[in-house]
Fold:
Amino acid sequence: PFYFRIKNIMVRYSFILLQLYLIFGTEKRTGMFCSILLIVIYYMMQLLYIDRNKRRFRTGLYFLVTASILFLISNYVTISNQTLIEIFFTRFDALNTTDSFSKMHRLTSISKSLDIIFNQNILRIIFGNGFAFLPMYMASRGINITTLNFLVIDNSYISLLADFGLLGLGALIFYVIRSSANLVKMVKRATSV
Structure:
């Protein structure tokens, strides 16, 4: 949302593109997906809660212009000989192929991790095992996720469940839901004034 407060449109789009370039350069699916999702959410909230009649058309037009510019530019900006669009689709398509290392790693890590977590006593399941439990547990017992000897779970929710238990994971989920509800209330309250 910070970028959308910049009055100069060229500077605004330059910052948005730079941020997307940096996020896409990491080739992390979550970062790519969330960046695009946040831009869409920003415009949707602008349309639904902030803008009034005449300004809604302008905001919709700004969204289409922003999406079009980002789409066009992302077809020309390259990282490691791939355009941003190619990186985006390649990363998500990698999960669909049967020989995908990423897919195999994730499925194996989820299975092994949940087995370890739920084979603990009930108190450890509820309250957790402490910070960085899974990698240390696996290393001490010689358990690997793949043939490349990975000890990284690569799933924040499972790691949080192992480290802080059902209560910790529940607290995080509650915090996200409560914060989102409060944000919507604040926006509605601000627009009704």
Q: What stands out?
A: The chain has eight helices and two strands. The chain has a mean pLDDT of 80. Helices lie at 9-25, 29-50, 53-74, 84-93, 101-118, 122-127, 133-141, 156-192. The longest helix spans residues 156-192.
